[in-house]
Design brief:
Elements lengths: L1 E8 L4 H5 L12 H17 L5 E4 L3 H13 L7 E3 L16 H8 L1 H9 L35 H21 L4 E5 L1 H12 L17 E6 L9 E2 L2 H12 L5
Parallel strand pairs: 1-4, 2-3, 2-4
Antiparallel strand pairs: 1-5, 5-6
Bound molecules: 2-phosphoglyceric acid.
Length: 247
Amino acid sequence: MTNKLILLRHGQSDWNQKNLFTGWVDVRLTEQGRGEAARAGELLAESGVLPDVLHTSVLSRAIQTANIALDSADRLWIPVRRSWRLNERHYGALQGLDKSETLQKYGEEQFMEWRRSFDTPPPPLDDSSEWSQSDDPRYAGIDGERPRTECLKDVVERLVPYWEGEILPDLNAGKTVLVTAHGNSLRALVKHLDGISDTDIAGLNIPTGMPLVYDINEDGTPAGAGRYLDPEAAAAGAAAVAAQGKH
Ligand SMILES: O=C(O)[C@@H](CO)OP(=O)(O)O
């Protein structure tokens, strides 16, 4: 028996639009992002993939996306769990920097190493930075684990326990699960699900606001490839993410 898992990256955020590294900075959706979230909910309703439970990060852009999508799918009433373990990758000292300026300043190799390598984190963010989360009350309970930077490997390490301990049990209870999260936390989850190598994961980009559906076996493995409900729009969205900073 399999159960349905829906992965949804938040719609376009204010800082996606401004082309800034975001990470744990708590920016909101743009009008376009709210439209993407509403369309994602319509796609769920049209395809009859209706979530029974929602898991989100603790970042507002994922929470807004879930609320808007669930509203347009008429599922606002489902139970919700939130965890920092689904947060975007902490982007360290790059948080708040312009992607094109960073590419120009450090060159393509360093830029891509920071953006897409598996195990090279950017330099850590100083607690005194205006983009630091060191005083953010939503992380009060995780002090020992509060990152100041993360590479994708770190995200896999903090996310997989949540997948195994919280999301998979919901799936195995027969529920259709919606996860609204972020470009890099969803890359980490897709890497884990699809067994993508540390090298090949560099080429995977997740578009904003596009539902990606998996059928999940009881042991947590996918029964086949994940499928975007709107594959053409998803391919165009992923290509746009890949090109960020380069024009
Ligand atoms: O800035 C970020 O936090 C992420 C997602 O928007 O960017 P990137 O795709 O460059 O990893």
